Design the sequence.
């Protein structure tokens, strides 16, 4: 498995397995199959309600703890300092882990300064190997690290051919923060798996559209956490490193950028209100 080095020296797999929207009843089986397929990064979150099942799969896998990189996320509801520490303990209990590899603040709403300082404490205490954020704009991210002690190691952003985050990617590279893509397949929007350009590039390489998308992200220096519940897709999504997209192909895919999300608009006030006030307990 190809790895990337975070800004604190921690090594992280460049391709992981996401469990967003995987029902709890299916999660243990699906994660177990992903581990059998070769995934060594599992990405979950408190708000996915499947941390316990992820933990069961980790223990059943027979793999050593140090062989698996585990990410979970703190929800906005628990962004006050003491709440964040309690939420972390709850996640660790559900996962059945003694330490976590990566802990992320899940959204840039609420008192994320207090939440970040709690994350810094967990990092200093060695309970977390790296800390970062999800869906933070470059402006909010810069403000966060300029006024705190630990620089985020990761910013997990919606990133795919239709919303390429080019400015954010440049900023993150400049600051030494890893860009990790959530929804690399745009959650199926714009009929991505049948897009004519992506299909033609895939045919040229004897690969699937999904593989082309993940390889395109990888060649931009972006880590990926694709999700699937199908064994054959799990194996396919890992098979990214035996082909290379040409400069012309990279440029052609770059032309698909719309500059906006097809999934949700984070400038829409009702949307932001709904996310920012959503309760998970």
Sequence:
């Amino acid at each position: 498995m190809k790895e990337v080095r975070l800004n604190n020296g921690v090594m992280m797999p460049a391709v992981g397995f996401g469990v967003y929207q995987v029902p709890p009843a299916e999660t243990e089986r699906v994660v177990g199959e992903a581990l059998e397929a070769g995934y060594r990064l599992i990405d979950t979150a408190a708000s996915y309600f499947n941390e316990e099942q992820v933990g069961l799969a980790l223990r059943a896998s027979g793999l050593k703890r140090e062989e698996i990189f585990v990410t979970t996320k703190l929800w906005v509801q628990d962004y006050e300092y003491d709440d964040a520490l309690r939420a972390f303990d709850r996640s660790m209990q559900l996962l059945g882990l003694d330490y976590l590899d990566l802990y992320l603040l899940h959204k840039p709403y609420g008192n994320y300064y207090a939440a970040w300082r709690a994350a810094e404490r967990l990092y200093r205490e060695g309970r977390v190997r790296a800390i970062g954020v999800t869906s933070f704009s470059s402006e909010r991210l810069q403000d966060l690290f300029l006024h705190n002690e630990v620089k985020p190691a990761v910013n997990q952003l919606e990133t795919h051919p239709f919303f390429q985050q080019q400015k954010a990617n440049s900023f993150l590279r400049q600051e030494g923060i890893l860009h990790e893509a959530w929804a690399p397949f745009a959650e199926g929007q714009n009929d991505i798996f049948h897009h004519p350009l992506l299909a033609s590039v895939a045919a040229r390489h004897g690969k699937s559209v999904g593989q082309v998308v993940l390889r395109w992200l990888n060649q931009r220096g972006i880590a990926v956490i694709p999700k699937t519940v199908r064994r054959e897709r799990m194996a396919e999504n890992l098979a990214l490193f035996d082909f290379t997209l040409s400069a012309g192909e990279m440029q052609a895919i770059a032309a698909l950028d719309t500059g906006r999300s097809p999934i949700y608009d984070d400038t829409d006030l009702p949307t932001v209100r709904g996310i920012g006030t959503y309760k998970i307990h």
User: Anything to note?
Assistant: The CA atoms of residues 198 and 204 lie 10 Å apart. The first helix runs from residue 24 to 37. The longest strand covers residues 128-134. The chain has one domain: 3-276.
